[in-house]
Amino acid sequence: KEQKLTFLRNTVRNIPDFPIPGIQFKDVTPLFNTKESLSILTDVLLEEYKGKGITKVVGIESRGFIMGPIMALELGAGFVPIRKPGKLPAEVFEEEYEKEYGVDKIQIHKDSLYEDDVVLIHDDLLATGGTMFAAYNLVKRMGVKNIYVNFIIELEELKGRTLFPKDVDIKALIQFSI
Ligand code: PRP
Ligand code: MG
Fold first, then answer.
1. Eight-class DSSP state of 137
2. How far apart are CA 149 and CA 169, in angstroms?
């Protein structure tokens, strides 16, 4: 497993000064690019969550839509999208959160989760944590009691974890210090 994680870590690509000068952008696309890395990534993610009785994987638009459905299929769960505003056609719950510039919103279909679902919320990256904390609050608001939170990458220095209550199960496969 350590070997697999090291491989994944080395496969993430650093793009300096994207999208603006001074930002070291962690590009996850090489993880999906070859059958080897995609299958190792899938293996490591499933290892963490199989046997937990997960019934729904919730993926956050856009980059949570890549591994989210793969995990759902392999875990025998359904997949639920959380989307940017105005994209979901039926009734939604909405949550606001702070971004670098002003506020942003995300939405989930009201009828997509039940109280007794065991939910895994997945996104590619934990930065400030604003996006995932909003997603977590959406899922909580729907009465779900059993919630796991997963990322591929965590940018440790931004301390996104500290937004969440201590008892929330948050896992990231790979840590980077910016
Ligand atoms: C990125 C990333 C996470 C979020 C993390 O998504 O994919 O969803 O930012 O940042 P935070 O922890 O500071 O909230 P982005 O909003 O850039 O959009 P995308 O997934 O559609 O590319
Ligand atoms: Mg995103």
1. H
2. 6
Calpha distance 130→65 (Å, rounded): 18
The model's pLDDT over 11-41, given as tens digits with 9 standing for 90+, comes to: 999 999 999 999 999 999 999 999 999 999 9
pLDDT score of 99: 81
How far apart CA 24 and CA 142 sit, in angstroms, is: 36
Cα separation of 61 and 64, whole Å?
Answer: 6
Alpha helix positions (H), the chain? 2-11, 29-33, 35-49, 64-75, 130-141
**For ligand 1, which residues put their CB under 6 angstroms from it?**
60-63, 123-131, 160
pTM: 0.97
63 is catalytic: yes
Residue 102 has what pLDDT? 86
CA 49 to CA 177: how far, in whole Å? 25
* Catalytic option among 36, 47, 94, 96: 96
